[in-house]
Amino acid sequence: MIDLHIHSNYSDGTDDISDILKKAEKFGLKYISITDHNNCKAYDELNNSSIRNIFSGKIIKGIEMNTKILDIPIEVLGYGIDTDKMNSITENLYLKTEDRNKLEFTRLLKKCSELGIKLNDNIEKNYDGKIYASKYLHTAIIQNDENKKFIDNESWENSNVFYRKYMSNPNTKLFVNVDDILPSFDKVCKVIKDCGGLIFIPHIYEYRENSNKILKEILNKDIIDGIECFYTTFSKEQSDFLVNICKQYNLFMSGGSDYHGTFKPDVEIGTGKGNLKIEERVIKNWINKVKTI
After folding, report:
1. In whole angstroms, what is the distance from residue 256 CA to residue 203 CA?
2. CB 86 within 8 Å of CB 78
3. What is the block-wise mean pLDDT of the chain (293 residues), using blocks of 10 residues?
4. Residue 78 phi/psi, 5° resolution?
5. Judging by beta carbons within 10 Å of its beta carbon (0-12, 13-18, 19+), is residue 3 exposed, middle or buried?
6. Degrees to nearest 5, angle at CA 222 with 219 and 225
7. CB 3.0-4.6 Å disulfide test: which of 117, 160, 183, 195 passes with 81?
8. Degrees, nearest 5: CA angle 274-278-279
């Protein structure tokens, strides 16, 4: 099995690198990739520490970069990258995480106020930017049942769904524009290529009602190398459709759990919500195109 979409505590995961490697070894994974958001600091540690010996499989150097397309915030995976070069670029390409969170918080709070969403008076005073604005404000929103009229039941129950369905969806009144915060899709793809990497589109169906038009726009650009066809929340029909797209457009395939540790407590490395189990053969057509450690 493989898992090429894992987050550590160098971004928004909760596990340190040694814990991730121990779990990957425990579950018998053959290939993994630690794909933290907008940085490759995990690989600084892996390159300069004996902890690499914990895991007997291969590691593909990776990153998940925040970007935007059609005014919608999305993510792009880069595999086989020069992590030193990437780290030097991303330091200047992105705002510090807390600064971005605070900007998004201010914008989302304004949207909430305009809609009449009822929030605690200390909501702004107590926010320090250390967690996502969507997660912090979602927690505040669901404290008052009167706010149920503003978001659907699925989003009420899950802050990640709330982010995808509302905060990052231009079709809703809670959409937060991040054009001035995030680099463009074309820019991010160029950075990955400049760092010697392959470009993959992750979890396309996480973009909900915008998924198909995002995928169409990306395919029309003829710039990506592959698609994450196997993912924790995908149905068999969705994975099958993406596999066929890869065959039609001559693209590579990948897959991953999007493991975040306790941040997503129902998602485990390698198996997602229990039955992911991505076979090694999925990456046989491109594994020889990237360096592994």
Report:
1. 9
2. yes
3. 98 97 98 98 91 96 98 97 98 96 97 96 93 96 97 96 97 95 97 98 97 98 98 98 98 98 95 96 97 91
4. -120, 130
5. buried
6. 90
7. 195
8. 135
Indicate the pairing of strand 198-201 with strand 72-79: antiparallel
Read off the amino acid at residue 173: K
How many Å apart are CA 11 and CA 19, to the nearest integer? 15
What is the reported pLDDT for 276?
97
CA distance 11 to 161: 19
For residues 203 and 279, give the distance between their C-alpha atoms in angstroms, rounded to a whole number.
17
The answer to whether 152 and 165 are in contact (CB under 8 A) is yes
CB atoms within 10 A of CB 181: 17
Q: What is the CB neighbour count within 10 angstroms for residue 30?
A: 14
Is the CB of residue 231 less than 8 Å from the CB of residue 258? yes
* Inter-residue contact 268 to 13 (CB < 8 Å): no
Q: Tell me, what amino acid is at 159?
A: S
Task: Give the per-residue pLDDT at 189.
Answer: 98
Which helix (H) or strand (E) is 181 found in, with range? none
